[in-house]
Amino acid sequence: MGTLAFPTGGPTTPTPRARRCTAGTPNNGSKRKPPAHKMQRPASHIGMDAMAGLKIGEFAAAAGVGRDAVRHYERIGLLPAVVRNGAGYRVYSDDDLERLQCIRHVHEAGFSLEQTRDLLEASTANRDRIETLLGVTRAKLDAARDNVEWLSEVVTFLTSLVAATPLDEAQPLWVGFQAGRCATRRRRSRFARGNC
Fold it and tell me: Which parts of this chain are annotated as the region Disordered (predicted)?
Protein backbone atom coordinates (compact mmCIF):
# COMPACT_ATOMS: atom_id res chain seq x y z
CA MET A 1 0.00 0.00 0.00
CA GLY A 2 1.49 3.35 -1.11
CA THR A 3 2.01 6.37 1.02
CA LEU A 4 -0.13 9.49 0.71
CA ALA A 5 1.67 12.48 -0.79
CA PHE A 6 0.92 15.94 0.59
CA PRO A 7 1.75 19.13 -1.29
CA THR A 8 4.75 20.94 0.01
CA GLY A 9 5.34 24.63 0.46
CA GLY A 10 3.26 25.36 3.58
CA PRO A 11 -0.48 25.93 3.98
CA THR A 12 -2.55 26.32 0.88
CA THR A 13 -4.18 29.65 0.07
CA PRO A 14 -7.94 29.88 -0.56
CA THR A 15 -9.11 29.95 -4.13
CA PRO A 16 -10.62 33.20 -5.43
CA ARG A 17 -14.10 31.67 -5.06
CA ALA A 18 -13.42 30.82 -1.43
CA ARG A 19 -12.27 34.37 -0.79
CA ARG A 20 -15.51 35.74 -2.23
CA CYS A 21 -17.63 33.49 -0.06
CA THR A 22 -15.78 34.31 3.14
CA ALA A 23 -15.21 38.02 2.57
CA GLY A 24 -18.38 39.03 4.40
CA THR A 25 -17.96 36.62 7.29
CA PRO A 26 -16.85 38.28 10.53
CA ASN A 27 -13.97 36.78 12.45
CA ASN A 28 -16.31 35.66 15.26
CA GLY A 29 -17.94 33.09 12.99
CA SER A 30 -21.44 34.67 12.94
CA LYS A 31 -23.64 34.35 9.88
CA ARG A 32 -23.25 36.61 6.95
CA LYS A 33 -25.36 39.79 7.03
CA PRO A 34 -28.34 39.54 4.62
CA PRO A 35 -28.76 42.06 1.82
CA ALA A 36 -30.38 45.34 2.83
CA HIS A 37 -33.54 44.73 0.74
CA LYS A 38 -34.20 41.48 2.67
CA MET A 39 -33.74 42.93 6.13
CA GLN A 40 -36.80 43.62 8.29
CA ARG A 41 -37.23 47.20 9.39
CA PRO A 42 -37.26 47.88 13.13
CA ALA A 43 -40.65 47.88 14.80
CA SER A 44 -40.30 51.58 15.57
CA HIS A 45 -39.96 52.33 11.85
CA ILE A 46 -43.01 50.21 11.05
CA GLY A 47 -44.96 52.11 13.67
CA MET A 48 -43.98 55.40 12.06
CA ASP A 49 -45.27 54.16 8.71
CA ALA A 50 -48.58 53.10 10.26
CA MET A 51 -48.99 56.54 11.84
CA ALA A 52 -48.18 58.40 8.62
CA GLY A 53 -51.91 58.75 7.79
CA LEU A 54 -53.97 58.34 4.64
CA LYS A 55 -53.53 60.42 1.53
CA ILE A 56 -56.64 62.07 0.13
CA GLY A 57 -57.42 59.34 -2.43
CA GLU A 58 -57.16 56.57 0.16
CA PHE A 59 -59.07 58.66 2.68
CA ALA A 60 -61.95 59.40 0.31
CA ALA A 61 -62.17 55.77 -0.87
CA ALA A 62 -62.20 54.43 2.69
CA ALA A 63 -65.16 56.69 3.54
CA GLY A 64 -67.02 56.04 0.27
CA VAL A 65 -66.95 59.63 -0.99
CA GLY A 66 -65.13 61.50 -3.74
CA ARG A 67 -62.03 63.66 -3.39
CA ASP A 68 -64.01 66.76 -4.34
CA ALA A 69 -66.40 66.08 -1.45
CA VAL A 70 -63.45 65.87 0.95
CA ARG A 71 -62.08 69.22 -0.28
CA HIS A 72 -65.55 70.80 -0.06
CA TYR A 73 -66.09 69.59 3.52
CA GLU A 74 -62.70 71.06 4.43
CA ARG A 75 -63.57 74.41 2.86
CA ILE A 76 -66.85 74.75 4.77
CA GLY A 77 -65.41 73.47 8.04
CA LEU A 78 -67.12 70.09 8.38
CA LEU A 79 -63.66 68.54 8.37
CA PRO A 80 -60.85 70.09 10.45
CA ALA A 81 -57.92 71.89 8.87
CA VAL A 82 -55.88 69.42 6.88
CA VAL A 83 -52.40 68.31 7.94
CA ARG A 84 -49.70 67.98 5.29
CA ASN A 85 -46.66 65.74 5.40
CA GLY A 86 -43.11 66.73 4.51
CA ALA A 87 -43.82 66.18 0.81
CA GLY A 88 -46.81 68.53 0.89
CA TYR A 89 -49.50 65.81 0.63
CA ARG A 90 -52.68 65.97 2.67
CA VAL A 91 -52.69 63.25 5.33
CA TYR A 92 -55.67 62.15 7.43
CA SER A 93 -55.94 60.29 10.73
CA ASP A 94 -58.31 57.54 11.85
CA ASP A 95 -60.32 60.16 13.73
CA ASP A 96 -60.70 62.16 10.50
CA LEU A 97 -61.96 59.01 8.77
CA GLU A 98 -64.56 58.31 11.44
CA ARG A 99 -65.77 61.92 11.22
CA LEU A 100 -66.04 61.76 7.42
CA GLN A 101 -67.97 58.48 7.57
CA CYS A 102 -70.36 60.10 10.04
CA ILE A 103 -70.82 63.07 7.68
CA ARG A 104 -71.60 60.71 4.83
CA HIS A 105 -74.21 58.79 6.85
CA VAL A 106 -75.86 62.01 8.03
CA HIS A 107 -75.97 63.31 4.45
CA GLU A 108 -77.49 60.05 3.18
CA ALA A 109 -80.17 60.35 5.87
CA GLY A 110 -81.30 63.59 4.23
CA PHE A 111 -79.81 66.22 6.52
CA SER A 112 -78.64 69.49 5.00
CA LEU A 113 -75.04 70.61 5.38
CA GLU A 114 -76.05 73.11 8.06
CA GLN A 115 -77.98 70.43 9.93
CA THR A 116 -74.97 68.15 9.58
CA ARG A 117 -72.78 70.81 11.15
CA ASP A 118 -75.26 71.17 14.02
CA LEU A 119 -75.27 67.41 14.59
CA LEU A 120 -71.47 67.28 14.66
CA GLU A 121 -71.48 70.07 17.25
CA ALA A 122 -74.47 68.78 19.23
CA SER A 123 -72.38 67.66 22.21
CA THR A 124 -71.47 71.31 22.88
CA ALA A 125 -74.72 72.94 21.72
CA ASN A 126 -77.29 74.66 23.91
CA ARG A 127 -80.57 73.01 24.86
CA ASP A 128 -82.71 74.88 22.33
CA ARG A 129 -80.53 73.83 19.41
CA ILE A 130 -80.53 70.22 20.59
CA GLU A 131 -84.34 70.21 20.83
CA THR A 132 -84.54 71.61 17.29
CA LEU A 133 -82.24 68.86 16.04
CA LEU A 134 -84.32 66.29 17.87
CA GLY A 135 -87.47 67.48 16.10
CA VAL A 136 -85.78 67.40 12.70
CA THR A 137 -84.41 63.91 13.34
CA ARG A 138 -87.79 62.57 14.46
CA ALA A 139 -89.39 63.93 11.29
CA LYS A 140 -86.76 62.18 9.18
CA LEU A 141 -87.32 58.97 11.11
CA ASP A 142 -91.05 59.15 10.33
CA ALA A 143 -90.22 59.70 6.66
CA ALA A 144 -87.85 56.74 6.71
CA ARG A 145 -90.58 54.54 8.19
CA ASP A 146 -92.93 55.65 5.40
CA ASN A 147 -90.28 54.67 2.86
CA VAL A 148 -89.88 51.26 4.46
CA GLU A 149 -93.64 50.80 4.34
CA TRP A 150 -93.68 51.83 0.67
CA LEU A 151 -90.89 49.41 -0.19
CA SER A 152 -92.75 46.64 1.63
CA GLU A 153 -95.80 47.32 -0.54
CA VAL A 154 -93.64 47.18 -3.68
CA VAL A 155 -92.23 43.83 -2.54
CA THR A 156 -95.80 42.55 -2.02
CA PHE A 157 -96.80 43.78 -5.48
CA LEU A 158 -93.82 42.16 -7.22
CA THR A 159 -94.30 38.93 -5.27
CA SER A 160 -97.89 38.76 -6.49
CA LEU A 161 -96.69 39.20 -10.08
CA VAL A 162 -94.22 36.34 -9.67
CA ALA A 163 -96.97 34.09 -8.34
CA ALA A 164 -99.54 35.13 -10.97
CA THR A 165 -100.46 32.95 -13.94
CA PRO A 166 -100.47 34.35 -17.50
CA LEU A 167 -104.28 34.52 -17.38
CA ASP A 168 -104.38 36.70 -14.26
CA GLU A 169 -105.07 40.38 -14.84
CA ALA A 170 -102.80 42.46 -12.63
CA GLN A 171 -103.20 46.14 -11.90
CA PRO A 172 -100.28 48.49 -12.62
CA LEU A 173 -98.10 49.34 -9.66
CA TRP A 174 -99.37 52.90 -9.24
CA VAL A 175 -103.05 51.84 -9.15
CA GLY A 176 -102.64 49.24 -6.45
CA PHE A 177 -100.13 51.34 -4.60
CA GLN A 178 -102.37 54.42 -4.51
CA ALA A 179 -105.23 52.38 -3.06
CA GLY A 180 -102.92 50.83 -0.50
CA ARG A 181 -101.46 54.19 0.52
CA CYS A 182 -104.89 55.69 1.02
CA ALA A 183 -105.96 52.78 3.21
CA THR A 184 -102.75 53.04 5.21
CA ARG A 185 -103.16 56.77 5.75
CA ARG A 186 -106.71 56.25 7.00
CA ARG A 187 -105.50 53.68 9.47
CA ARG A 188 -102.58 55.78 10.70
CA SER A 189 -104.30 59.14 11.04
CA ARG A 190 -107.76 60.10 12.16
CA PHE A 191 -107.23 63.47 10.46
CA ALA A 192 -107.23 62.00 6.92
CA ARG A 193 -109.09 64.18 4.43
CA GLY A 194 -110.29 64.39 0.86
CA ASN A 195 -108.50 62.52 -1.92
CA CYS A 196 -107.62 59.54 0.22
Answer: 1-42
- Residue 37 has phi, psi (to 5 degrees) of -75, -10
- Do residues 111 and 71 make contact, with C-beta atoms less than 8 angstroms apart? no
* pTM as predicted: 0.57
Domain boundaries, the chain: 50-111, 141-188
Q: What angle do CA 171, 177, 183 make, to 5 degrees?
A: 120
Q: Which amino acid is at 10?
A: G
Q: Of 55, 139, 117, nearest to 91 (Cα)?
A: 55
The tens-digit pLDDT sequence of the chain (196 residues) is 454 444 444 455 444 444 443 444 445 444 454 443 333 333 333 333 434 589 999 999 999 999 999 999 999 999 998 888 888 888 999 999 999 999 999 999 999 999 999 999 999 989 999 999 999 999 999 999 999 999 998 898 888 888 876 666 767 777 766 655 555 555 555 444 544 4
Check: CATH 1.10.10.10 for 50-111? no
Burial 108-128 (b: 16+ CB within 10 A, else e): eeebeeebbbbbbeeeeeeee
